[in-house]
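Sample intake sheet
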Amino acid sequence: MLSVIQNPPRIALPIVGCGDLFPVRRVYCVGRNYAAHAREMGADPDREPPFFFMKPADALQIVGAEPAAHPYPPKTANYHFEVEMVAALSGGGRDLPVEGALDHVYGYAIGLDMTRRDVQDEAKRLSRPWDTAKAADGSGPIGPLYPASLVGHPKRGPITLSVDGAVRQRGDLGDMIWSVAEQIAYLSGYFALHPGDLIFTGTPSGVGPVERGQRMVAAVAGLGEIALDVV
């Protein structure tokens, strides 16, 4: 049976150390998962359970070894960076226990949850969904995937983002309120997780605007760095 339109391209991540690809199914993102970031966003991290939103898989922008041109989206005058470690799942299921959750992780990558902050603030004010704030084309820059067989399961180490050489975000993976394993277990209570799912695991404090002509460099311990030129 033929498709009545051309089949959309399948989004897939390159994998460090081999020529294979990791096909992406869904993209989940956890909100306010570092205490300092929760506070800068006006929330109380000590009382809030994790919450999640999604980006479309085709909102990912695959970034290689060279700096990539990152398009500044329309309908915003306040476009923010949020550096994150991304976990990529090779297994899944429902109601997964925390103790075995990391067995479902294939590997990790550097990602950015780029956000139309003015659009998000208006959505919050009106109690509306965040989709137009979080799901802009290219709003999920992501680097190559590092298999857990090579890097283990990073639990501590610096996570940073600089703009034109000045560090704007600096945190430690150990500062997550909810660990990667806890995020997987909690999320699996709401959705059946599957191979190909990605989880953006939260951003440290220091999020802020970026302008056309600036270069962002994001880095996570053990996962190298990625660079983007805003155009």
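Comment: The first strand starts at residue 12 and ends at 14. The mean pLDDT is 95.
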